[in-house]
Amino acid sequence: MIKVALAGNPNSGKTTLFNALTGATAHVGNWPGVTVEKRSGVYYDKGDKKKENGLEIVDLPGIYSLSPYTPEEVISRNFVLNEKPDVVVNIVDGTNLERNLYMTTQLLEMDVPLVVAINMIDAVKDAGQTIDPEKLSEELGVPVVLLSALRNKGIDELVPAIRKAATSKRGGRSIVDLPLVEKAAAIYREKGIESPLFHAVKALEQDEIEFQEYPEVANEVATLCEGEAYDALVADARYRYLTPLVASSTTGRVKQEKAKMSRSDRIDRVLTHRVFGPIILVLMMFLVFHLTFSEDLFFLGAMGVPFGQSWDGPFNDVFFAIGDDGVSIEGINSIGAMLANFTNGLTGMFTEWVVGLIDGSGAPGWVSGLVGDGVLGGVFAVIGFLPQILVLFAFMAILEDSGYMARAAFILDRLFRRFGVSGRAFIPMIMGFGCAVPAMINTRTLSTDKERTKTIRVIPFFTCGAKADFLIMIAAAVAAAINFDAGLFTFLIYFLGVVVAVASVIVMNKTTQREQVPPFIMELPSYHRPQFRALMIHIWDKAKHFIIKAFTIILLSTIIVWFFSHFRWNWSFIEEEFAQDSILSSLGSFLSPLFVPLGFGNVQAGQYAWTFAVASIEGIVAKENVTAVMESLAGGLGFESFDALIAASGVSVAGLLGFTVFNLLTIPCFASVATAKGELMDKKTYWMTLLFWFGLSYVLGSVTYVVFEWVWTLAIVLPIAAAGVVGLIFYDRHKTKQERAALEEAA
C-alpha cells in the first residue's frame, strides 16, 4: 500500500482533504512517544477495495515551516525524513499562495516524491484570479494539481498524480541561491546522509535539531558561515524566489478597492468589530446552548402561551416540555431536548422489557436490580444525554469549520490581552469545551512554561461535553424548583466557567506565574460552508469516544456503586429500600460533613447526604459518573428520578448551585489529570495544580451556597472580594517596581 503524507499550513484545508480521501476509514491515535494527535486512514478507488491498491493517508500536524519551534513541526519533519513516505502531498492555500509555498521550498530540499495540491481554488476564482499549475510545475519541478477539497473537486486528478509520483524517485532541489549551500551539501553527501540538501540548509540556519542529530557534520558546516547569520539570508532567498514565481503564475487583478472587498472581509467588518464582535459572540454561544438544552425554545411558555395537555405514551415529552403534573405542556423543546427525550423513551422501554424478562424467569430479585439499576440504569442515564452532547459538538464543529471560531479567539485576545490572557493560549482553552485532554495536549504550542501552566490549570473550567450531562440534570432540577429556563441556566454555568478561567489567569499572571504576555499571531481563514461529510465524521468520532467510555469505565463504576449500595459490611444483601445500611452509604456519610459549607452535606441533606458526596467523588474518575451515580442511587433508594431524591433530601436551590459549582471547577477526570501530569514541567507544579483545582472549587462552591442561601452575606463577601482586588493591584505594582529595578541594575 502506498504511504502518503499530507503536509501543509494550518487552515489550508488539509483536514478537509484528509476527510474527503479517507472517509469512514479514518482513525485517530497519538504519535509514538508524544501525545500529539495522529490521524490516518485509507483511500480506495471506487469499486476497488483491494488492500494493495489503496493509499495509506497520514495527516501530519498543520505547521508553517520545518524548523524545530514546536513538537508539531518536529513530528512532520521527522516523519518525512525517517518514515520515508512514498509521496508527500503538500496542501497549499491558493488564496495565500506565496506564504504557503514557503514550506514547499523546504520540502523540495528533501529526497522524497512531492505533489503540490493547490487548494481552495474556488475561492481564488471568486477573487477574480487564476493560477497556472503548468507554470508552477515547470518552475518547482514537481506535479501541481488544483483542487477544492471542500467541494470534492480535483481529487480525481490528485490521486493519479500521487500514484505516478510514487513510482519514481526524486532527489532534493534547493531554490536557495547561496554559495555555501552546495559546499555544505557536499559535506553531508560524503557522510552518506540522506536528503543532504535539506540538512545542509538547516545546518546553515543553525537549526537546533540538526546540531542534536548530526553534531559533527553540522559543526563542520557552521565553520563555513564564519559567524554570519545565514537563517535570515535563507529566508530572504526563499521569498526572493517565490515573489516573482507567484506573480508570473497568477493572473487577474487583485481586488483591493473597498467596494470589492472579499466576502470574508465584509463579514469580518461586523463579526470582529470592537463593539459588536463580543456582543455577537455572546449571542452566538447563547443561541447554541438554547437550541441544545432549552425546554422553552421560543420562550412561549415564559410568555404564558396556553398549550393544553399532552397525550399518553412513552414519547409524550419528545416535542413538548411536560409540567410536574405529567400532562400539562409548558413549552416547546429544543432540538437537543427532543432527541434526548426520544432516546430516554427508547432506553426506558428497553430496560422495562429486560427487567420483565429477568423477573419472569424466576431469577433472584438482586439480579434484576443489578441489571436494571446498576448496569442499564447507570449506562442509559449517560446515553440519554448523548444526543444533546452531540448536538452541541455539531454546532461547535460548524462554527469551527466555517472559520468563526478563529475569529472568536481573535476577539477574546483583543479583549483580555491587557489582563495577561494570550489569544494563543485561549485556543486550547476553547478546545476545553470539547474535551480537556486534547486541549491540554495543544498547550505544547505555547511559548513559555508559565503560559502552559496557566492554561492547563484553567482548561477544566471550560465545561467539556462530559460535564454537560450533569449540568442538564441540575438544570432540570433547578427549572422545576424555581421555574427557571434550563437552557439559560446551562448557558450561565458555561459562562461562569469562562469568567472563573479568565479571572484565574489574571491572578496567576500577577502572582505566581508572572511574565510578559507572549505575542500572538493568528491567521483568520476565509469563511466557507462546512462540509457535511466532514461534519458527520467529526460527530461520529465524538459519539464513538463517548459510547466506549460509557460501556467501559462508567459501566464498571455503576456496577461497583450498585454493589456497594446493596451490601452491608457483613456482605449480606439488602433490598433497595434499605440502601441506607449499605457500605456505600457509610462511606459517603463519613465524607458528607466535608460538604456542609457547600450546601449538600449531612446538615442540609440529612440521611441522603451521602449520595451527593459519593457522586462528587466518583466524578473525579469520569465526570459522566456524577449523572450515572445519582440516577443509579435514586433508583436504588426507590425514587423515580433524581428530582425526587433532591426533594426528599431537602437540599435547597442554593445547595444545588454549590453542588454544581464544585463539580464544575474541581479536579477533572482521571484522563485529564494524567494528561496534566505529563504536560506540566515538574512534580511540584503538578501537585500545586491539583491543590488549585480542589481549593478553588471548594471556596467558590461554598461562597455560591452561602450567598444564594443568605443574600445578606453579600455585605460581607463583596468587601472581602474588593480587598482582595486592591491587595492584588498593590502586590502587582510592588513586583513590577522590583522587576524594573532588577532590569536597570542588570543593564
Please characterize this protein's 3D structure.
This protein has 747 residues and is of the alpha/beta class. It contains 32 helices and eleven strands. It has a seven-stranded mixed β-sheet with strand order 2-3-4-1-5-6-8, with helices on both faces. Strands 7-9 form a two-stranded antiparallel ribbon. A hairpin with a 6-residue loop joins β2 (27-30) and β3. The protein is globular. The protein starts with a strand and ends with a helix. The relative contact order is 0.07. Residues 255-259 have low confidence and may be disordered.
Relevant terms:
747 residues; alpha/beta; 32 helices
Helix content: 55-70%
Can you summarize the main beta sheet? 7 strands, mixed
Number of helices: 32
> How far is the first residue's CA from the last residue's CA?
61 Å
Tell me the structural class: alpha/beta
Q: How confident is the prediction overall: mean pLDDT?
A: 82
| Structure summary, number of beta strands | 11
Contiguous low-pLDDT stretches (5 residues minimum) are 255-259
Radius of gyration from the alpha-carbon trace, in angstroms: 30 Å
